[in-house]
Design brief:
Number of strands: 25
Radius of gyration: 22 Å
Number of helices: 1
Distance between the termini: 60 Å
CATH class of the largest domain: Mainly Beta
Shape: globular
CATH architecture of the largest domain: 7 Propeller
Order of helices and strands: HEEEEEEEEEEEEEEEEEEEEEEEEE
Length: 300
């Protein structure tokens, strides 16, 4: 409540204005002096329409993945199930049940024989894609598991989550091989390079990081997003990487140099998933927007 005397009230009001301005000034200066991105693409190359509708989950869907051949799709939901779908027909092939919390991440092995799922129940579960049975449960995270990926040979599973750690697992033994420490907040997304040697991770600490899988060491940190990095992806040749963020932007990076090549602006909300499409396009979808494709033109 303001003091009753008009002069005191005026001084009190001026003091508060100055105090708030002092708090905001560093942020305003930073916003005014940010260096321009390498390139800003404001218009997507194209939007696509829905061709198939998959029904079955009883709650929100948080994660999806395609098999390498594109014939099957996975979905993970707050209803605690993972579902496997036939892409051509939209038919449910298998329902994977066992998690006791929301399923926040799903992934196929490259050969399509195995499925991995990460959950709010702090576990990663491996499933046989052919018959829907659980093969193994990996335990070690101390918080929700929000990201999973297979190495190209299928022998290693990488996971990340609320405990701020990346964990590398020996799939056959079901044991953790090592933890990668560096992020300062939740890890939302992971990706493994096509040759299996590098790992990308995106975090609520607003960075994407590159790791040497064999050495277990951080190679590079990519900064620039203003809010959490919720999605990362390697290009098919491993030369470039995409990062999507709650700041509604997508950034395209040269992996080895760490150089920002493009900043793609066009979404009006958080970007929860990004991916490269073979040939000329990549796409960063957002849950409440149409699927957007961006041309990958004039890159080094």
């Amino acid at each position: 409540m303001l003091p009753s005397h008009p002069q005191i009230a005026c001084k009190f009001f001026i003091f508060n204005c100055l105090f708030i301005s002092a708090l905001l000034l560093p942020f305003l200066i930073r916003a005014a002096t940010l260096p321009p991105a390498a390139s800003v693409e404001n218009k997507p190359a194209a939007t696509v329409k829905e061709t198939r509708h998959f029904e079955g989950h009883r709650d929100n869907i948080w994660s999806v993945a395609f098999s390498a051949d594109g014939h099957r799709a996975l979905s993970g939901s707050y209803d605690r199930t993972v579902r496997l779908w036939d892409v051509a027909t939209g038919r449910e092939l298998h329902r994977f049940e066992g998690h006791t919390g929301a399923v926040l991440a799903v992934a196929f092995s490259r050969d399509g024989h195995l499925v991995a799922s990460g959950s709010a129940d702090q576990t990663i579960r491996l499933w046989d894609a052919a018959n829907g049975t659980e093969v193994q449960t990996l335990r070690g995270h101390s918080g929700a598991v929000t990201a999973v990926a297979f190495s190209p040979d299928g022998n290693t599973v990488v996971s990340g989550g609320a405990d701020k750690l990346l964990r590398l697992w020996d799939r056959e033994k079901g044991k953790e091989k090592r933890s990668l420490v560096g992020h300062g907040d939740w890890i939302w997304s992971v990706a493994i390079s096509p040759d299996g040697k590098r790992v990308l991770s995106g975090s609520a600490d607003r960075t994407m990081r590159l790791w040497d899988r064999a050495a277990g060491k951080e190679v590079r940190s990519y900064g620039g997003h203003y809010l959490a990095v919720t999605s990362v992806a390697f290009s098919p040749d491993g030369r470039w990487a995409l990062s999507g963020s709650v700041d509604a932007s997508v950034r395209l990076w040269e992996v080895e140099s760490g150089r920002l090549l493009r900043r793609l602006v066009g979404h009006v909300g958080p970007v929860y998933a990004v991916g490269f499409v073979p040939s000329r396009y990549f796409m960063p979808p957002h849950r409440e927007e149409p699927l957007v494709w961006w041309k990958r033109a004039r890159l080094p």
